[in-house]
Amino acid sequence: MATFVGEAVLLNGRISGECVDCPLGMLPCHKPSGCAEQVTVMIRPEQLSVGPIESGIQAKVMKTTYFGHDSLIELLIDENGQATSASIRVLGRPQVKVGDTVGLKVDGDVVIY
To answer: Which of 23, 35, 48, 61 is an S-S bond match for 88, by CB 3.0 to 4.6 Å?
Structure first.
């Protein structure tokens, strides 16, 4: 289950080498020394983007909210039978609509703890 806390998406993950395996796939991270195998993954909203299905992990658009200068897109990710939700912000009007299936991509290293 992803949690949207302030300006971050939090996911459960498992360390695998120099990456963390989580519902959004294998993501590069900076592994702190003495880090447990099971970790929490923190992703900043500006690291998330949506595009064509083949551009990332498949996610279904559940809701969009337009605020004038930006929009909130609520997504449902069903990876290996485990449903996870995540919310991202995009500039301007959303280019997707409820029911669309999109590719969710994470840019850059994520923080783990």
So the answer is: 48
Q: What is the pLDDT of residues 34-56, one digit of tens each?
A: 778 899 999 987 899 999 999 99
Angstrom CA distances, 5 to 18, 36, 43, stand at: 25, 22, 10
The answer to whether 9 touches 43, Cβ cutoff 8 Å, is yes
Residue type, 14: R
CA distance 4 to 8: 6
Proportion of the chain in helix, strand, coil states, percent, rounded to 5: 5, 60, 35
Instruction: State the maximum Cα–Cα separation within the chain, in Å, rounded to a whole number.
Output: 45
Q: What is the pLDDT of residues 51-61, one digit of tens each?
A: 999 999 999 99
CA atoms 45, 3, 52, 64: torsion sign: negative
With 0.85 as the threshold, say if the pTM is over it. Answer: no
Joined together, the tokens standing for residue 48 give 């998330």
